[in-house]
Amino acid sequence: MRDRGKIRYDGEYFERGRVDLRKRLAFLPDAPFVHAGMSVLRHIGRVVQLYDAAGEGVEQTVIELLTELDHWRANFERGAVASQELRVMAPALLPLFGRLRLP
Fold first, then answer.
1. Helix, strand, or coil here: 80?
2. Alpha helices in the chain (DSSP H)
3. Using one digit for the tens of pLDDT, what is the confidence trace for 25-40?
4. Which of 17, 48, 54, 98 is deepest in the core (most CB within 10 A)?
5. Among candidate residues 70, 76, 74, the one with its CA nearest the CA of residue 89
6. 81, 30 contact by CB (below 8 A)
7. Which residue has the higher pLDDT, 8 or 28?
8. How far apart are CA 39 and CA 37, in angstroms?
9. Contact (CB, 8 A) for 50 and 28
10. Residue 44: what pLDDT?
11. Is the separation of the CB atoms in 69 and 94 below 8 Å?
């Protein structure tokens, strides 16, 4: 039983840091993992970097998204939005994330 070795893809070594090969192999998760201890901003930064969504205005877009999400959270916490309403309205948030131009 083999327990060592290297994987090649198109003749190149497939390593964790080779994001270009991971993209070609479709080995990037649809929903990136959140690691314990990672801040929201660090996680967003990693997602933007992994999916090549960085570009002009991305910082402002992230700030706008976080502001909008904070508004929803605050309304939910003070009871202005019931959990059933939140489930119904949650799909309305998806277009906001579309502004990040993630694949």
1. coil
2. 19-24, 40-50, 58-77, 83-89, 94-98
3. 766 666 666 677 777 7
4. 48
5. 76
6. no
7. 8
8. 6
9. yes
10. 78
11. no
Quote the pTM value: 0.44
> What is the CA angle 84-92-46, rounded to 5?
110
Domain positions in the chain are: 8-98
What number of other Cβ atoms are within 10 A of residue 36's Cβ? 4
Using alpha carbons only, how large is the chain's radius of gyration in Å?
A: 18
Q: Tens digit of pLDDT for each residue in 30-77?
A: 666 667 777 777 777 777 777 777 788 888 888 887 787 777 677 667
Fill in the amino acid letter for 58: V
Distances, alpha carbon 54 to alpha carbons 3, 49, 60, 65, in Å: 38, 6, 11, 15
Helix axes of 58-77 and 40-50: crossing angle, nearest 10 degrees: 140
Torsion of CA 65, 60, 30, 10, to 10 degrees: 180
CA–CA separation, 90 and 72 (whole Å) = 10
Other C-beta atoms within 10 Å of 62: how many?
19
